[in-house]
Amino acid sequence: MASGKESPRQKMIGMMYLVLTALLALNVSKDILDAFVVVNKGLENTNTNFSEHNDLLYSAFDLAKSVDPVKVKPNWEKAQQIKKQSTELVAYIDGLQKQMIVKSEGVSQSIADTLQMENINGKDSYDAVTNLMIGDSEDGSGGESLKLKNKLNDYRTLLTNYIEPADRKSIRIDIDTKDPEHSENNENWEMYNFFHRPIVASMTILSKMKNDVKNAEAATVDYLLKATDAMNLKFDTVAAKVIPQSNYVLLGEEYKADLFIAAFNKTKNPEITIDGNTSPIDVERGLGKYNVKTSKEGIVTYSGTIKMMSPQNKPMIFPFKSEYIVARPALTVSAEKMNVVYIGLDNPISVSVPGIPNEKLSVSINNGTLKPDGSGKYLLNVKDGAKTDITVSAIMENGERRSMGVMTFRVKRIPKPTAKIGDVVGDGSMSRDKLTTILGPIANYEDFVYEAHCKIISFDVSYPVKGIIVTDKIKGNIIPQSAKDAFGKLKRNDRVYFENIYAVGPDGLPVKINPMTVKIN
Questions:
Q1: Same-domain pairing of 369 and 500
Q2: Within this chain, do residues 341 and 460 fall inside the same structural domain, yes or no?
Q3: Does 264 or 41 have the greater pLDDT score?
Q4: Is the pTM of this model over 0.85?
Q5: Is residue 1 part of a domain?
Q6: HSE-up (13 A, CA, CB side) for residue 56
Q7: % helix / strand / coil in the chain, to the nearest 5?
C-alpha cells in the first residue's frame, strides 16, 4: 500500500467509474443506471476489504507497542488519531448516502439504513440529491457538498502531516478535491460531482470517496508502522500453525480457527511463563507446552509472557491472554412422555448445555415462574394452563446470543390425597374410646414423588343417635364435641360415616377425596 500502486481490481473499478460519470452527460438509460449499481457494489466490497486490512494493521501496531512502548507509542498515537478521523469521516459519508435515500424515496431512516441500491425505485431521480448536496446556491456552498469537501481536505492534511516530506511522493494519499480542469460549464468540485446527478451516481461517487479515505488510511498507517522498525526479531524456521477459537463447538455453530505461518529459532527457544509463575514451561521448536489439570467447570482464563532476546541481545516481552472451556461429562436420559410439572409446587429442574458454563446460560419460561437454585438448578412454579415452555439461550464466545432450544413440559394437577381417620382408610374398625380422642380426619399424598402437604377444609360425619342417623356438615377439619359425645354412646357394630370430604393442596384447588366408614368394635 505504501508504494502507491493500485491493484488491478481498483484500476478496473476506477475506470468504470470514470466511464459511467462521462455517460451522465448523455441520456441516462436503465442499463447505465444498473451499471452504477454494479460499480457501487464493487466499491463497497473493496471498502470491506480495506476495513479488514486496516484492522490487521492496527493489530500489528498494538503488538509492536506492547513489545517496545517507548519506541512505538508516538507513531501508534498518530495511527489512533487516523483511525478516529477515518471512522468519523466514513460514518459521515454513510450518513449522506442514507439521507439521499430518505429524501429521494420518501422512506424512514430505519428503512434507508437497510435499503440496497438495487432496490431503489427512482434510480434516475436527482432533485432530492441536488437539494441535499448543493442546496439553493449556485456553487454548492449551500449544501452538504462543501462540508464534505472541507472534511476531506482536513483529513488529507492530517495524513500528509504524518508523512515525512521526503516520503510524500511515494505514499499515495489519493483524495482529490480539486476543481475539474476540463468542465464544460466551468463547474467547481461540488457542482461537478453532485449537481443534477441521479441518486445512483451520487451514491457511487460517495462510495468511491469512502474507498479513497480507507485507501489513504491504509497507506499512512502502514507507513507509520514500518517507520517504527519494531518487528526486528530473527528467525530461521517456519511452520504452519492452527489456533482455534474454541476446542468445543456446538452442532450448528461455526468452527473458527486462525491459520498462519509461525516463525521460530531452532537454536534459541523463548522463555514462557504462565500466570506469574517464576518457572518457565517446556518449549519445543518454539512452541510452549502448557498442560494443566482442570478442577472446575466454566471458562478458565490464563495469561503470561513470552520473552525473547532481540538481535541486540535485549529482552523483548510479549504478553498474552487466552481462555478455554471446562465442561462436566454430560449424560442426558429423558422419558419423553414424562415431562410433567405439577401446579402449585416448586418443581425442581436442571438446565445445562455441554461446553457452555452455567453463567453463560439464560433460562426463561412462558407460563409460570423460575427461581434459581444454584449451579444450573431452578424451581419451576406453575399456577394453571396445559403446558409450559422452557427456553434456553447462551452467550457465545463472540458475544452473540444464540438459542439452545425449547423444552415443553405438560402441566398437571397434583394427584388426589388420601383421607384417613386414625388408621382407617376406606372401611375399617375402631374402638369407641379411640374414635372419641381423634381430632378429625387428615389427608396425605401417598406414593407421590414430591413432598407436598394438604388440608381438609370440609366434610360430613354421620352417626346413629337413638336409632336415627344424624349428619353434621363440618367446615374445617375438626370433629365437633357434640359428635364426639355421641360417639361415646355408640354400641358395638355401629357405623360412623365420613363423606363429602374436600381438601386443598399446594395448587389451592379444592378436591373431593375418598369417603371412610368406621365400624365400632
A1: no
A2: no
A3: 41
A4: no
A5: no
A6: 8
A7: 35, 30, 40
